[in-house]
Amino acid sequence: MNMRKKKLLALMVTSAMMTCPVWADDTTAATGYESSGSQTVTSGSAAAPADDQKTAVNTVVTSPNDETTADAMKAAKSGLTGYETAEELAAIAAGKSPAAVQQETAEAVHKENEILNPAPVDTTPQITGDKVSYMSGTSDMQFDTSIPGYPLAVIQAGQDVVLPYGEAVTDADLKPYVDKVATSVTVGPVPEAQIEQKLLPQLAMRVGDAVNMDYIRHDLNVIGATGLFSTVKPSFTTVPEGVSLNYTVQMNPVVKKIDIVGNESLSTGDLMKLVATTPGTTLNTAVVSHDVANINTAFANAGYMMSRVSDVRLDDEGVLHIAISEPRIENINLRGNTKTKNKVIMRELRMKKGDIFNKNAASRSIQRVYNTGYFEDVNVRLLPGQRNPKDVIVEIDVTEQKTGSVTIGAGYSDSDGLVGILGLAETNLRGTGDKANISWEFGGNTDSNKNYIFSYTHPYLNDAGDSIGFSIFDRESEYDDYDEKGNSVAEYDRRTNGFNVTYGRVRSEYVSDYVTLETKRTKYTDHDSGFNYRNDAKDPDNKGYDFAGMDYLGKNFGRTNSLTWSHVFDNRDNVYDPTKGKRLSFTGTWAGHGMGGDFDYFKFIAENRLYYKVGRAHVIAVRLMGGIATGDMPYNDLFTLGGADNLRGYEDDEFRGNKMYEATVEYRYPIAKKIQGVVFTDVGNAWGGVENIPWYHENNKLHYSGGIGFRITTPIGPIRLDYGVGQDGGKFHFSFGGKF
């Protein structure tokens, strides 16, 4: 920005964030939050009933007399209630009995209620066969597959204490045999002797041991945990020396086929890859538990946190059926948006009614709603479905913030005289999401009244989210040119006018392209101090700069017609205060070269912004930039470094050139509510292409700086305060706008 050195006699700027009444919707409209007991009293007319409501027969109540009493007695004897509609009375007149008409009416009302309030629908897939018991949280289980067709789950030492198989027997069942010597310990019947040989070394009860309740329960857990058996229980046979112990088992049936039903979000093929149960082998409930845990984990990792295996059954044909339950979004309710229209919020959502609920889609939706900038806070709640309690109702509660601003100011200087400032901005025009901004400076010695900027953006042209916007500008401001050492060499007024149109095309969730067509004209309007570029570019201070034979104004001021294309990838969690993600952009500009204007050049710049969250609210932000240009670029279109936006600790736009690189690292940490501290370091340089700027001597020297700063959120927008120390000393920077 330019460095003003005028003597201001008076300056008053009043800014207020507000939504102008003329932009708001009719304040008499219902908000949706009125209490049920509130009433609206109108004069001269009654509210008409809604089209879908049944109009009741008007009943006038008068003082009873003999005639009305007789009529009532007659109606009661006839079966009439006195509240029949015209259609019902016509049906009775045609010969139907009042009781039949009332029955038909009751049935019609019942059917209507069923349509308006349907009974809960259970969408859980129904499967047949015997239920297969499984346990959750066993995805890390190990298996012994050395016996073909009979996989055995292997439990680790100590895990048996949490298994339920040992509870199959009571103390009363075991008490008659406690302390008797076990003369033999076997497991059977089993189809393969290897199965018993695998189990016996893991048992606590050994031949010659006295029967112990804890040992028996340990062994039941070890045998049951293999997953091969549907039942396991101890059997004792009394012998002269003591008892013979056999752990009686019943093998599970053989699985011949696996069928997964109810899944939509993840394919059957992908789920089958997670299933370790193999057709042709004996059913192993431990393996099934392992499979269920893997499937549930896959759903959770994909964001389907509420989708899971709901049932597992094995039918008489040997088919293992695995049922998947995937809760859907029954409805999406919006609360708190009194200004913003529902469609503006709904179009940002990455979920819709009827979708399977996905946590990732819900999180992204909330990010997008917040990133509109219309809301101070956005929260989501999940409620049980009304038609099916297993489904969910998503309730999004927003707190709107003021999106309009009015800026009024005035200033006085010797050169310009009294200047008025008026600014109007609205980022959510009438709740539609459209953005409009106008800034106008009027008065002054020139009395031109043409110092203005007007811009308008429509963010949603279609369902894909394409956007279009334009700007018209005619601005005149004081500007300072600096040499390579940061010394001011010229102070002058520069006027820039023109317009541009930008079309944004959404490619995917995080990728967009932007095309901007612009024409602008820069003009050297008035000399204030230093070099006078208009007056033959004389060197009033005799600093030795050679302008001989050079048309300085012609080479650096004039019309530029350009076409700019930008390709942007942006997955930041919060565009205003990012804590994770990145923004990668590539921008190319084609100026002149058949498009007209006074300059022909190509310009390309790449930028990458990275964000890393460290701790609860601390963030490391990194920005890397590089650019290159070719052709006859004017002074004002060269790459610039220095100032509040990139290379702090130096003058604004101190370094220029047709080549540029820059890197910034910031450590951001919270200090108080709406106040953030920053520690930063900047490095970079711009050089080349300065042949038309005699007073600027380029160099490819690396420039660097470091410092501290603060970010303050105020009612008139974010404020940045930075103090940077460069190679030539320190400099304070004050600026408006969000952080990179």
Rg from Cα: 40 Å
Number of helices: 11
Low-confidence stretches: 1-73
Please provide the count of β strands. 31
SS-derived structural category: mainly beta
- How much of the sequence lies in strands comes to 35-45%
Task: Describe the model.
Residues 327-401 form the POTRA domain. It comes from Megasphaera intestinihominis. This protein has 740 residues and is mainly beta. It has eleven helices and 31 strands. The chain has a 17-stranded antiparallel beta sheet, with no helix packed on it. It starts with 10 loop residues before the first strand and ends with a strand. The model is unreliable at 1-73 (pLDDT under 50).
Keywords:
BamA/TamA family outer membrane protein; single chain; mainly beta; 31 strands; signal; four-stranded mixed sheet; 740 residues; elongated
What is the fold's blueprint, element by element?
Layout: E1 11-17, H1 66-78, H2 86-93, H3 98-116, E2 130-131, E3 142-144, E4 152-154, H4 171-174, E5 182-188, H5 193-199, H6 213-225, E6 229-239, E7 242-251, E8 257-261, H7 268-272, H8 285-301, E9 308-314, E10 319-325, E11 329-335, H9 342-346, H10 359-371, E12 375-384, E13 392-400, E14 404-413, E15 417-429, E16 434-443, E17 451-458, E18 467-482, E19 488-506, E20 511-530, H11 552-556, E21 559-570, E22 581-591, E23 601-614, E24 618-631, E25 639-641, E26 655-657, E27 659-672, E28 675-687, E29 703-714, E30 717-726, E31 729-736
Parallel strand pairs: 5-7, 8-10, 11-13
Antiparallel strand pairs: 1-14, 2-9, 3-4, 6-7, 9-10, 12-13, 14-15, 15-16, 16-17, 17-18, 18-19, 19-20, 20-21, 21-22, 22-23, 23-24, 24-27, 25-26, 27-28, 28-29, 29-30, 30-31
